[in-house]
Prior knowledge:
- By secondary structure, the chain is mainly alpha-helical.
- The protein has a single domain (27-88, 99-174), classed as Up-down Bundle (AhpD-like).
- It has helices at 15-26, 32-46, 49-55, 64-86, 106-109, 114-128, 131-143, 148-174, and strands spanning 3-5, 8-10.
- It has a two-stranded antiparallel ribbon.
- Strand 1 and strand 2 (8-10) form a beta hairpin.
- Helix 2 packs across helix 4.
Amino acid sequence: MAAAIGDMQFMEDSEDQAQFLTQVLSEDQLTASSKRYVVWSSVMAARDKALTDFAAQLTDAVPDAEKRDIRFALSRMAVTNPYFFSRNFAQVNAGGSLDVLHMRDFQSIQVHDEIGYHYACIAISMVNGGYNCFRSHVSSLQQLGESDEAIDQAMRITSALMAVRQATFTQEQWGV
């Protein structure tokens, strides 16, 4: 084993990714709360038990209000990511709005932390490949005054966690 973070052991081939995760989590462009939104949204969207267990070692416990926001983000992105992504490849002269997906408007879901919610959505959209939604939520964060450096840190955290997911899968399949 070449590196360890918490209980997670990384092989030599994943040492760079382990260092990347450690580094990006230590940066301070994001608040502790926004980091939790990104970490937990990423791992919940990945639907990977080992990654979820690992995430518990990376952040403080998630308060119920943040869990509620993340659940809404996961639920809504599960619908919007594939729907709006697929519309890039089909000339369909119907639909194309949140209304046709029977989604409540954003104000009616009353999220606890609007910035955290949008960070959750960009993390989930990265994992799901929902790039139209990703762009929309990045734009929302910029309009709310979030810096490009903070948004980039969120994207790198998600990328690092997906690298951990790959490393753990490879180790499970091929061993040490």
